[in-house]
């Protein structure tokens, strides 16, 4: 999915290397944890939700707004990379509790 995102990005009117410049940008969502676990999980999950990324991309494509298409692609690609590395959407219990299991824990 990360590769697919890169391929889609190359169809936009931006240099291909911008993809890599912004690939980690969705991690700004971690700043939500400054306000506690519940707020952190909500903000983090918004910035890492593939469904929301797809909606943003479709909205941008429909209205011919390449910037929104790019945002959707970056969020989707970043979330795909995170999932491949074992980082899932967060539960309000704490940062290390994800829908993929506990980070650093024994998941099976």
SSE diagram, text form:
Elements (H helix, E strand, L loop, with lengths): L1 H9 L6 H6 L14 H11 L2 H13 L3 H19 L5 E2 L2 E5 L2 E2 L6
Antiparallel strand pairs: 1-2, 2-3
Helix pairs in contact: 1-5, 4-5
Could you name the key traits of this structure?
108 residues; three-stranded antiparallel beta sheet; mainly alpha; 3 strands; single chain
Word description of this protein:
- With 108 residues, the protein is mainly alpha-helical.
- It has one domain.
- Helix content is 54%, strand content 8%.
- The protein is built from five helices and three strands, in the order H-H-H-H-H-E-E-E.
- The chain has helices spanning 2-10, 17-22, 37-47, 50-62, 66-84, and strands at residues 90-91, 94-98, 101-102.
- Strands 1-2-3 form a three-stranded antiparallel sheet, covered by helices on one side.
- Strand 1 (90-91) and strand 2 (94-98) form a beta hairpin.
- Helix 1 runs antiparallel to helix 5 (66-84) and helix 4 (50-62) packs antiparallel against helix 5.
- The longest helix is centred in the C-terminal third of the chain and has 19 residues, at 66-84.
- The chain is elongated.
- The model has no long low-confidence stretch (mean pLDDT 93).
Overall outline: elongated
Number of domains: 1
How many beta-strand runs?
Answer: 3
Class by SSE composition: mainly alpha
Strand percentage, roughly? 5-15%
Radius of gyration: 15 Å
Instruction: Give, in spatial order, the strands making up the sheet with the most strands.
Output: 1-2-3
Structure summarized in a few sentences:
This protein is mostly helical. The protein has helices at about 1-10, 15-20, 35-45, 50-60, 65-85; strands at about 90, 95-100, 100.
């Amino acid at each position: 999915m990360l590769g697919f995102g890169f391929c889609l990005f190359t169809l936009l009117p931006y240099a291909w290397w911008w993809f890599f410049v912004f690939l980690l940008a969705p991690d700004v969502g971690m700043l939500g944890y400054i306000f506690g676990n519940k707020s952190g999980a909500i903000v983090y999950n918004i910035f890492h939700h593939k469904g929301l990324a797809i909606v943003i991309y479709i909205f941008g494509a429909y209205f011919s707004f390449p910037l929104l298409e790019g945002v959707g692609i970056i969020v989707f690609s970043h979330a795909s990379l995170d999932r491949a590395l074992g980082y899932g959407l967060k539960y309000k219990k704490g940062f290390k509790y994800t829908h993929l299991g506990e980070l650093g824990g024994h998941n099976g």
